[in-house]
Amino acid sequence: MIYQMGEETHQTRERVLDDLMAWATDDSAPKVYWLGGMAGTGKTTVAYSFCERLKKVGLLGGSFFCSRRGLAEQADVLRILPTLAISLALRIPSYKWSLLSV
């Protein structure tokens, strides 16, 4: 599923977040949701808000936000998979034991 961000209002962002929640809870939906748009259109804000919503309902497995500015860890793409692996291991015991075994 693809959503192209543009000049968004608060109402539009709420609609996008509602659409994201519907997508996240629909087992028949595509497995990837691509949120695109020009710089400054609110993609990161929507993504952070979406992660918070998922966390509140117990559906967030993990998250990683890349940034060229800010912490050095956020600019290092080599940290994406290890960060997500740790997040999942802390949330899912069977995953943790499988991860530890490899």
Largest sheet: 2 strands, parallel
Rg value: 15 Å
In percent, how helical is the residue content?
A: 40-55%
Q: Give, in spatial order, the strands making up the sheet with the most strands.
A: 1-2
Order of helices and strands: EHEHHHH
The rough form would be described as: globular
Percentage of β-strand residues: 5-15%
Distance from first to last alpha carbon: 33 Å
Number of helices: 5
Low-confidence spans: none
Mean pLDDT: 85
- How many β-strand runs? 2
**Helix vs. strand class:** mainly alpha
Question: Which structural traits does this protein have?
Answer:
mainly alpha, two-stranded parallel ribbon
Present the secondary structure layout:
Elements: E1 2-5, H1 10-24, E2 34-37, H2 43-56, H3 72-75, H4 80-91, H5 93-101
Parallel strand pairs: 1-2
Helix pairs in contact: 1-2, 4-5
Question: What is shown here, in short?
Answer:
The chain has 102 residues and is mainly alpha-helical. Helix content is 53%, strand content 8%.
